[in-house]
């Protein structure tokens, strides 16, 4: 589960390639989330995160979307 980015107490990472569609997993002390990276950024699942936390995380994912996709391609050798 390679960590791609850490922002404060938020960890952005990939799991094993459980799905072919590009996505990023997020872990905080309070909960978890998963965002699809394509065709555009949107929330796939979450657990125990407030709307405020999800909005902050989504903002970071949108800002780093291209970086996450590049890292996905490098990590999974696409």
Describe this structure in words.
With 78 residues, the chain is α+β, with helices and mostly antiparallel strands. The protein has one domain (3-75). Helices cover 32% and strands 32% of the residues. It has one helix spanning 51-75, and strands at 3-7, 10-13, 23-27, 32-36, 42-47. It has a 5-stranded antiparallel sheet. The protein starts with a strand and ends with a helix.
Q: What is the secondary structure topology, with strand pairs?
A:
Elements lengths: L2 E5 L2 E4 L9 E5 L4 E5 L5 E6 L3 H25 L3
Antiparallel strand pairs: 1-2, 2-3, 3-4, 4-5
Short synopsis of the structure:
With 78 residues, the protein is α+β, with helices and mostly antiparallel strands. Helix content is 32%, strand content 32%.
Q: Which key phrases capture this entry?
A:
five-stranded antiparallel beta sheet; single chain; 78 residues; alpha+beta
Shape: globular
Largest sheet: 5 strands, antiparallel
Radius of gyration: 12 Å
Strand content: 25-35%
Coarse structural class:
alpha+beta
Bin the helical content.
Answer: 25-40%
Q: Tell how many strands the DSSP assignment holds.
A: 5
Mean pLDDT figure: 94
């Amino acid at each position: 589960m390679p960590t791609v980015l850490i922002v404060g107490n938020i960890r952005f990472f990939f799991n094993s390639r459980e799905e072919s569609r590009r996505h990023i997993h997020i872990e905080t002390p309070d909960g978890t989330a998963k965002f699809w990276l394509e065709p555009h950024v949107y929330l796939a699942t979450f657990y125990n995160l407030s709307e405020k936390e999800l909005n902050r995380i989504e903002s970071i994912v949108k800002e780093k979307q291209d970086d996450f996709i590049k890292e996905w391609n490098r990590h999974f050798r696409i």
